[in-house]
Amino acid sequence: MSAVNHRLLLVHAHPDDESSQSVATMARYLDEGGQVTLVTCTLGELGEIMLPEWQHYTPAELGQHRMSEIDEALREVGVNDHVYLGGPGRYHDSGMTTGPDGRAAVPDTMPDNAFWRADLLEAADHLVEVIRDRRPQVAVTYDPHGNYGHPDHIQAHRVLMYASVLAASPSHRPDLGAPWRIQRIVWNTHNTQRWVEAYAIAKERGLELWPEEERGADSFGPDPAQIVAVIETAPWLGVCRRALGAHRSQVDIEHPFWQFYRIMQELPGSGEAYLLGAGEPFPESDAPATCLFAGLDDEAAAC
Ligand SMILES: [Zn+2]
């Protein structure tokens, strides 16, 4: 008997984040017959172009190009429900700068329709419509700091958290569909312990990585005790590599960082790690859950 009816929503800021952070998660639930919806908030028009032959692209041209890259990546994963928040190009990449503390920061100037400047109610309502239509039990986005601080990651987080409250409220915009409550929201994060292990292996192999003092062992990710779920990468390594590789304008998979990342994904027991953002807690356990739907009580419960 297959009673599994998992419905998962992922909200990512721009193309390629789904392929660097969520491929195993998306592939696994699709493989199990679940429904996977990906929402991408901008076209990533201000991403750093890795290939010299595409350096001349204007932001608009890069955005168009990145739509074809994410299409290819999602074909590799098998995702066929992909939505651009408010339609393609509604929200422009806000860009990013580096603050005095070396962290990602909000740039001084950005286009008028930059996602960072979005009216939050309008942006959330685009997502309310998707939530009420797809009725996900679980949703995924970044943590409140946007993981490493990219303004559009932070905004994606805000929009999902806000939209989840509005979507569940019967009095809010009944014209956008019947109310729907997402039972659990998780935030993607670094698999801290695996990052530490992979960093040591990569250094041994002579890969040129960021200096340890710049990013000490305690800043590889959250306290591992906070990680509530890990979705195993091992069955999906090939898909992970092909999906990431599809983002050629942004990702040179031979770059030392991505070689490090590959080492990390290949470590035994490695996987995509999550923090609990809101909603139903995971069942009590000493180890992180192996399913994002663990312990939910409606038709989604089977893991
Ligand atoms: Zn990103």
UniProtKB/TrEMBL annotation:
Keywords, in A-Z order: Hydrolase, Metal-binding, Zinc
Single annotated GO MF: metal ion binding
Gene Ontology BP, a term: mycothiol biosynthetic process
Cross-referenced Pfam families: PIG-L
Enzyme Commission number(s): 3.5.1.103
UniProt keyword annotation of Zinc present: yes
Protein name: N-acetyl-1-D-myo-inositol-2-amino-2-deoxy-alpha-D-glucopyranoside deacetylase
